UniProtKB/TrEMBL annotation, chains A, B, C:
Protein name, per record: UDP-3-O-acylglucosamine N-acyltransferase
Class of this enzyme: transferase
Active-site residue list: H225 (proton acceptor)
EC number(s) reported in the record: 2.3.1.191
Subunit structure: Homotrimer.
UniProt KW keywords: Acyltransferase, Coiled coil, Lipid A biosynthesis, Lipid biosynthesis, Lipid metabolism, Repeat, Transferase
Catalysed reaction equations from the record: a UDP-3-O-[(3R)-3-hydroxyacyl]-alpha-D-glucosamine + a (3R)-hydroxyacyl-[ACP] = a UDP-2-N,3-O-bis[(3R)-3-hydroxyacyl]-alpha-D-glucosamine + holo-[ACP] + H(+)
GO molecular function: UDP-3-O-[(3R)-3-hydroxyacyl]-glucosamine N-acyltransferase activity
UniProt entry tagged with the keyword Acyltransferase: yes
Organism: Verminephrobacter aporrectodeae subsp. tuberculatae
UDP-3-O-[3-hydroxymyristoyl] glucosamine N-acyltransferase non-repeat region domain boundaries: 22-91
Organism taxonomic ancestry: Bacteria, Pseudomonadati, Pseudomonadota, Betaproteobacteria, Burkholderiales
Gene: lpxD
Residue ranges the record marks as coiled coil: 302-329
Family: Belongs to the transferase hexapeptide repeat family. LpxD subfamily.
Length: 333, 333, 333
């Protein structure tokens, strides 16, 4: 299943230098793992030492790294080597595993009232309920549930175990018990969205939960009812977003972070891993909030002191006042 | 699928004022989203400004808001507008999607030794193992697994992807390896319990894991072996409860919180999102523990200082002693 | 389904003392729950008071507890009572539920190009894709997906809803959008691995994600692409491990912890629950980092002060300098 270097640049562009077009490439590999039959890439100048030591047949580099790369051997010069590498993986995938054809696996359960585009692919043991829609060229891998009236756009990838359109978590308290609020909205997912394994996106209470075009969600993410996620935002694994939160476009959320409900995150907000977002963030930027790891004994000491932090501040204030009084020749009360 | 205002009050009670019984209602909507064919609700006086501006055909309000509401147009006066709204959504659901009938979907795999009540509904691709029981009017949506000997009460809703009765996580260490402790208990779930998508409830080691009547669990929750969750408690998404913890009745746990094992939470304990419960909580109340979010640069400074917190306390103490000595005319050692 | 005490020691070893071999044992139970027909165990001397009060027919104890136990009644003296208990649960399971036979459930979807060992058991509604391999005596419970080319060793237990081999989360940013990096690696799982319900293990980008022999993973865990988990490590529920992290052998990770990407944890590292690992840990030991729980009002005060922690440190420093100057008879500037 090799490709020739010439075939790669013909397909993806870039300038092949210092090497022959008919060099066969067996696979793509990182700089340190690559062998003499492999294509590698230098995504950042800080890895330049690994470049020099790499045994790769050819390395994708940015124009600024061209001479350094040529001193080693063959290279493909490309504007953005990391994007070039991404497209090379797509070329490999297409070469080795022919693009899946549309169609519904015999074991899937698709309601007659659902609409699946002929070019969409519904994998084994999926469930597509009444009124649900799956757009052109979308691929539901296996064991995916798409609930009633939920809509998935074109060219989406939905990994195994995903649940789209379970009921949002809505109950009214009455005399110590919970009265169910039926969730009458649905889920609307745009085009080019990818959803990781076992992730859940709940249907809205009255209006729809919305995931806009180009959003990428990792595994085991919880998206509550009536959330809206803006275009091209990306969430790492195990994130939870509570009901009615609105996340802007081009945001990123790190793994295990929690976004509380009814908040608004501006476009370009970046949340670090394991951070709890408790208020709206109206300006782009990086936001963080988790307890720094330490060896357990030191953590215990600091954590215990943390519970007195407010009192420590009062003691500092008292010291300042005492000292100020002392400086002024007055005896503090 | 409209309902008339008269039909709504006939079904749910409350006093229709300032409007005609034959007004058709197309849907339920929030105050700001409602159009002239919609029913809305004022759940709290703080939203009264939205009430004045709402275009809703009719608004559900508490008695204290009656006059304000009548100044705008039609209203239904009800003791608890939020509960009334919840029951209205149920009316809508019943009207638009007829109550599901009992029965086992042809694609489900139900062991001949399982007991499914004739009025229970087992959705597509569920697995019900030997000795498992599902009570009257319970509904397992799709792709739910109920393990051997696990019991689900009446009127429960179990969303897609739920796993009830996987083995609890029990191993005995022996010479650097793990010896499996077979999990000989099961899971016992009461009546009127709702369980969110992809949530897991493990079977007990020796006795059963127990979820009492009326408990509501959101998506992607992990309930360890031998946990007991008291009546009418509610957990938001992504919560983890470790083995043998006992949560009281009428508790709430916020999203992403972690409850460690072998702890006891009294009735009426409320845990904030992302909080780690490391000790038993014997009094009702609200408990919290997560690092406050900040912009990343400030967080980094504070987090770095946090690691010296215990030493800062020592420095404050030293300052206090020095100053005390200085005040007393003594030179500190 | 009782066993006689004599049968138990014949199967598992240990010395039966103070009791008759023909005593029937109905079940295994904890010291406080055990009745007169039950076998119990004393795993640690700190529970010795429960031992004295237990109504168990027989108690498994360590040699040092022998006399104390005999004062109460029958006991089995064993080197490690907790391991003995574990093996007793296995005996019980084998007695009451005959070992599952190999075979593929009729409802499972197994690609003709997959290799399933004849002694492996593939439960209902599993999906085994092309090129995947399942080793001898492994048991996939129900609704498990094993993706293309992923390999599972011998004697593994994979609980319901697990997804092995979904795509790792890899995208290259290009002009505000995300270009998919096809994940060309697979997942390689060793022997004697147990994987909890709804856990996800992603396939590698270029090389494989690796889970070594004897690893135990609880429910709802996320393992990113190209992670390597060393032999006999154990992770509690809801843990997330980001891409390319390397966890050593004999590590433990508490529930809800997050391990960031491209880090290395040495053998014998133990991470407390809900801790965020942000740097490599090169020495064995216990590491912790979560905000201590408090009642909400106190937490709010301390959390607010925490945001000024860096400034508090500056104020302490200023106080120290002022006081030092004052001691030296100089007026501080």
């Amino acid at each position: 299943m090799s490709l020739l270097l010439g075939q790669i640049v013909d397909a993806l562009g870039g300038a092949l230098e210092g090497g022959a077009r008919d060099t066969p490439i067996a696979r793509i590999a990182s700089l340190d793992a690559a062998g003499p039959g492999d294509l590698s890439f230098l995504s950042h100048p800080r890895y330049r030492q690994q470049l020099a030591a790499s045994r790769a047949a050819c390395v994708i580099v940015a124009p600024a790294m061209r001479e350094l790369a040529l001193a080693r051997g063959a290279c493909i010069v490309a504007h953005d080597p990391y994007v070039y590498y991404a497209r090379a993986t797509q070329l490999w995938r297409a070469r080795n595993a022919p693009a899946p054809r549309g169609g519904v696996h015999a074991s899937a359960v698709v309601d007659p009232g659902a609409q699946v585009h002929p070019s969409a692919r519904i994998g084994p043991l999926c469930v597509i309920e009444r009124g649900a829609q799956v757009g052109a060229d979308s691929w539901l891998k296996s064991r995916v549930t798409v609930g009633e009236d939920c809509r998935i756009g074109a060219r989406c990838i939905v990994h195994s175990g995903v649940v789209i359109g379970a009921d949002g978590f809505g109950f009214a308290p009455e005399q110590g018990q919970w009265v169910k609020i039926e969730q009458l909205g649905a889920v609307c997912i745009g085009d080019d969205v990818e959803i990781g394994a076992n992730t859940c996106i709940d249907r809205g209470a009255l209006q729809d939960t919305v995931v806009e075009d180009g959003v990428k969600l990792d595994n085991l993410i919880q998206i509550g009812h009536n959330v809206r996620i803006g275009r091209h935002s990306a969430f790492a694994g195990c994130v939870g977003v509570a009901g009615s939160a609105r996340v802007g476009a081009h945001c990123t959320v790190g793994g295990g972070a929690v976004v509380l409900g009814h908040l608004e995150l501006a476009d370009g907000v970046h949340i670090s891993a394991a951070t709890v977002v408790t208020r709206s963030l109206t300006r782009p930027g990086q936001y963080t909030g988790f307890f720094p790891i330490d060896d357990n004994a030191r953590w215990e000491r600091n954590a215990a002191t943390l519970k007195q932090l407010h009192r420590l501040r009062e003691r500092i204030k008292a010291l300042e006042q005492t000292l100020q009084g002392s400086m002024n020749g007055r005896t503090p009360r």
